[in-house]
Amino acid sequence: MRQLSLFKLAVVFLTRVPIKLSGPVSDEHINRATRYFACVGLCIGVLMALLLWAMSLFLPFGVVIVFTLGASLLLTGAFHEDGFADVWDGFGGGWSRQQKLDIMKDSRLGTYGSVALLILLLSKFQLMLALSENLSALLCSVVLAQTLSRVSATSLIGKLPYVQLDSQSKVKPIAKSLNAQCRTILYVTGGVVLFLTYLLSLTSIWQIVTLIATLWVTRGLCQLWFKHQLGGYTGDCLGAAQQVSEIAIYTYCVVSFL
């Protein structure tokens, strides 16, 4: 696949945008498309920031944030949120590794997942509402959160073994490897976004360094969590890592920008 085709595949994989792909898609194509997951996150973040700014001209910020979060869920099909809820259902309701995997592949939503999803959405709302005191900080935070959270989650691929069989997975195929080129492009994308926020005087060097450290710690904790619970990761785990990283970024921005 050419690079444009890989980018289109990344968009199709992570969103509900109706893009037609030419030719069959293999597991290797999915693995190679991971290099553009952060780019897709950047596009989502920019769209969310534009929507926030436009609606803030005539609506209260509380309403604006709810509508923006709703639009992002429609755009992504709640892809990562679904994984986050499944992880909490599986880890909370299962005793053995197989029990946890069986619960995670079940399409029904349990109590653990429901409560976790409610807390997740409320946390996003409250953190974004706090950031609305400074519109520039809010818009910057949204772009950073959507981009860097996908860098953090995607970079977990290859750090742990993949433990779910394709025949048991609700969403297939799933990326199972991240080669050096893909990892480099992923990190460069995140680095470019951070550098642009610095050039626009939205962040300082110290804020960039501490944000990277925050994400590194968050990813490390997710890695230990998944290893302890499953001995590896599944697609749901990557979705959960993305959501946890997103919350970590918003929390950091509230502390740092306000």
Automatic annotation (TrEMBL):
Keywords: Cell membrane, Cobalamin biosynthesis, Magnesium, Membrane, Transferase, Transmembrane, Transmembrane helix. It holds the Pfam family CobS. Its cofactor is Mg(2+). It is a multi-pass membrane protein. Pathway: Cofactor biosynthesis; adenosylcobalamin biosynthesis; adenosylcobalamin from cob(II)yrinate a,c-diamide: step 7/7. InterPro entries: CobS. Its EC number is 2.7.8.26. The chain crosses the membrane at residues 36-55, 61-79, 109-129, 205-226. NCBIfam families: cobS, PRK00235.1-3. Belongs to the CobS family. This is Adenosylcobinamide-GDP ribazoletransferase. It comes from Pseudoalteromonas obscura.
